[in-house]
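Supplementary Text 2. Reproducibility record for the structural model of the 457-residue chain.

All settings were left at their defaults, and a single model was retained for analysis rather than an ensemble. We include the record here because the model underlies the residue-level annotations in Supplementary Table 4.
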Amino acid sequence: MPQPQQPSYLSHPPLPSYFPKRTTGRRKFWIAGLVLALLLACGGGAYALWGGPGDDRAPSAAPGAGSAGAGALAWKKTARTEPSKGAKSARGAWFTPTTVVKPEPDMVTAYDLKSGRKQWSLVLDGVLCASSRDVGGDRVLIALKSAGVCDVMTVIDIRRGVRLWTQPIAFHSADDPDLDNFRPDKWQAELEVAVSGEHGLITWATGAKIIRLTDGKLIGDSPQKAPCRYEGAAGGSRMLTVARCERQSRVRSQNPEALDKPHWTWEGREGEEVDEVLSTRPVVLLIGDGQNRLLRLVTLGDTDGKERSRIELRDDHDSHACSASMSKCPEYLVDGDTVYLAGKGSTAAYDLTNGREKWTYKADANRTAFPVAVRDGRLAVYVAGSPERVGELSHVATRTGKAARTTRLAPDLRATEWRLARPKSLVARLAGDRLLLINEGAMESLDTDVIVAVAAP
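Retained model, structure tokens:
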């Protein structure tokens, strides 16, 4: 299958999603309310930058100014509409060369990366239920909920800010038993969507379909019968479906032109469960035991789906169940044949070809060090601020694991970082000269932070 070209402006390899957890036995929902703002007595805005020029610059925290000093607030955005009961999720974030596009429960808005100015905004035809992590030709696929049922899909062109089409995912009668698989309070497995190139993939417990992104035309569908059920979809470089058949997981690399004729199929070992697809090129799976305990990473061959390596998770890895749906966890970053794992006070690098550890970077001993992006031979590692400590962004050599430079974030950002990080709502992304702290948890009020942009030259 020809692989779509990935946008060059992304500062990390294409990763499939970071959404709240499922309500099924496979995972627990992580949509937790944001904690109350901590009252901190912070200083003016001092910061330190090691290993680079400009140490004597005074930081500026003026939102929208676009000229903040390293580590200081450049701009931030709060919720645009008052969240309502059953409409609080803010899943996903997408990028163009100049904007970050952020969904909220009932709208999608694009902001200029440099200044934070709004570029466009669209009101959704329902409440956001699921959205693709990846972008296919400037298009994203979103599933919408109306009257408690996630049965509508829409495609948005994120560069132009245009809704291309909206249509039903499936047609059901009121007494159709399959309708429960589209109700979040009743489904066996969460409905998921993904995109790859010109195609979109939708999966729910009892079925899957591939559609054309340009016009929504059905390319193929594949019903799923007991004892098997679909549990996830992943996109990007290729389309993957994840299914569960009693005590065995099954991953398929789907053929967009023939959903019933996959390129390859991988059958997991009995008792193992695919908890996440961390990457689709190479294919990296996060494996658990089905009891909310994560065990290891498994790498599969791109062309044949055969197992290449296994990496056992250690106690010092921050390997709790990711607050994400099938695809992207902030605790893991895949770049080529290397995976970076967040840990308490460290980030470890492993070779995916043989499963061996390359190095471990030591950060703050009491906080998780998240791998964010690889750029110019360096790994960006983010440690969130806390009431006692400022946040940090370090640049670590990918060959040696040695820190080249570290930027300390402004002290007056500590409360904001802590509010996002503590309930597992924060995903850090590096785009241009901005470190974006993105809320992918719950919108509790109009004061909820959606995006916090920090200067990171």
